[in-house]
Fold this sequence. Notes:
29 helices, alpha/beta, single chain
Amino acid sequence: xxxxSRTEWPRISSRRGYDADLEREIxxxxxxxxxxxxxxxxxxxxxxxxTPDDVRIHKIGSALNGxxxxxxxxxxxxALEWVQMxxxxxxxxxxxxxxxxxSIPFAWATDAVHGHNNLFGATIFPHNIGLGATHDESLxxxxxxVTAREIAASGIDWTFAPTVTIPCDARWGRFYEGYxxxxxxxxxxxxxxxxxxxxxxxxxxxxxxVIATIKHWLGDGGTKWGIDRGVNAFPEEELRDVHxxxxxxxxxxxxxxxxxxxxxxxxxxxxxxxPGSRAAYNGKLHGSRYLITDVLxxxxxxxxxxITDWDGHCEVSKCTLQDARYCFNAGADVLMVEARxxxxxxxxxxxxxxxxxxxxxxxxxxxxxxxxxxxxxxxxSLKEQPTRRELVRKSQHIIGCEEHRSVAREAVRKSLVLxxxxxxxxxxxxxxxxxxxxxxxxxxxxHNGGWSLDWQGxxxxxxxxxxxxxxxxxxxxxxxxxxxxxxxxxxxxxxPAHADAAxxxxxxxxxxxxxxxxxxxxxxxxxxxxxxxxxxxxxxRAIKASGIPMVIIFLGGRPLYIxxxxxxxxxxxxxxxxxxxxxxxxxxxxxxxxxxIRFDFQGKLPVSWPATRRSFSIAHPGVxxxxxxxxxxxxxxxxxxxxxxxxxxxNYTSASHISDELDHIALDPEMAEQHPEPPSxxxxxxxxxxxTAFDLKIAGNGCWVGVDVSRTEPLDMMLGRVEPxxxxxxKDALSLAFNGFQGRIASLYIQLPQxxxxxxxxxxxxxxxLAFSVRMAAKPAGTVLLACHNxxxxxxxxDVTHLFSGAPLNRWVELRVPLAExxxxxxxxxxxxxxxxxxxxxxxxxxxxNIRWELQPKAVVPGKATY
Length: 867
Ligand code: BGC
């Protein structure tokens, strides 16, 4: 998989081309637009926080529905109900330009990332990693076409797909959104999706097409430890030759929108263009003038829209939710903002910035020119109002129709990768007696993965996907209920099962961004990740012991370490995240009645499969070796050991020889987890005796990236003020004034740097407490919560409002919370990264200091302790 190495950023040669007449027309419109109208076009708001009147008054250019957001909060809304929701916004936008010499069409966007996945009854396709396994470019194009028809039939114009990320670390929770780890393959496959979604010029005219978005610019798949929204530290050459590959081909294919990545890029070239403003620039892509303007717009000459991700501007240290100046000046054209008060505030602050010259008029005009260009090229102004559109009128016959679902089933069939087939166990006879087992057999969420009617894909059931077929249902359909026994029944009857084969469906619980990361202190070993996965391994061992020939089907969004499972299986199939067309799997697993093959395996691994528990990261040979950062690349390469290379996959004619070898694969010897010696005395977090280096931070909801609290100077934020004060020593405590601003959560937390974790179970076992001193300036105005985290967002929190309300005013007292109570909320003490977090959405004014974990708490002094 050598990577194409370039010496510079290539210039895009889009099939859209330059249209002088269009540019003149746009100039004429720009010349007549007011500043307010221009800024309105630059805002994309979330539908729950936007009314049609808002669109009319502020000339808002577009809206989106977030994942898991449906009309009237009804997940069963039909396409027509979607259109009825959209129509008033569309009409309001037209109304907004009444009396003006021009009109600008409104656009509605959604995340249709594996089919129109937010719409009940729509056709759901395998996630991109499965499509990458098909290696079938024309199929990917047809999937794009079907998806576009279903999106258009619900009155929507724009999708946030395809993702062209190059996932390099299997711990990343968005791994499955990428087609492949191989940039060459992504370069080949992703443009097909664009052609499918956007159609050729003819398609665009007949309204069967939607606007595609290429995301996320740039390097989201290359963050350290695979952390979502994390830090990519690779040299520019690797960003260009590996991570940008899919952008080159999709932008050439005519895609016109690029979405920014939440991640940051750690590099000297990622400069701060406004060093005087606010905090030091934290390298977030949303503020990278180098990568947005210098590279994408100037060197590559991309002439479409750069859109931000969901409230992504506020993660730039130079911005807040309500002030996006730095982000606009870096080159963002459309700002995706969720909350009403935020987009309203951004409109006001941006107006002010233009009036005072902090954002130039030419920057605004550049953004609006791009928006008008893209809207024009997508022929949005030729589209009728949503309810009158041809496809909308036929939507009942389009959404989830048989023809579309047969494409999904074909995709499932073609995405399956056969890793092993000892003794040609597969294909099975349709008359086989089958034992069904494994945590995934009946679980539709494990088939679908995230972004499936629900954001994380968890909060759904079979009835949410009409006509869905889990693998268990598909097997029963082929062999008949009478030939199927559930493993649970076999186990409880204690007797031997009279079966020709066991089909064990194992797989990952559904997840999406943020929640899906495997934490840096874990390995890739499937059985170690969740209790249900461990049970799967035990089931596999038991079935092996029972002597029933066994096929294992793995459902999942990333390659995990499953060498023992592969070794114990007779046949092993990777089915990725196939979606609800389970019949596509049985099409291949079962032969015809006369024993002939119905469909052979075609899928090839789009990613290399790990041979060890710690084969986390994929490095790309051919880039970066001699460059700055090359050492890190080499280290990654050494760490990664592949059991199967990218491109591997058997079929019914090639199977036997290689699969025998798999019976002898070496298992990665289990390594005891290495923990630093747990502290044998109190663990001091804030106060005069602290010896550990901690980051002290303030964060708020909508913006989880904390801001560093200075140990010497006061910090003022929208959420309140923090000021270092003297308590037991010099500036060893903090004065906290959270203002409960708009009911948003504000938090103060203490974190070990670099996601380091501490093994602190001994504190819980010894009956330790989390103790701190407070001096209340006022009673808290609402709920106050305390938490300890190994990472966001995995743990619960303890309501400690009564402690804060019970504390006297203006006098220091000590509050002591048994760690066992925090343990009950789900905190995991073997890997603590944030040993203290206090948060509230209410006003809270107090001084706080001497924060520590006490191993052997001293006796509670009556009158002093309030707990
Ligand atoms: C994701 C994007 C998505 C957007 C809109 C974000 O959280 O990172 O990929 O398009 O939400 O739903």
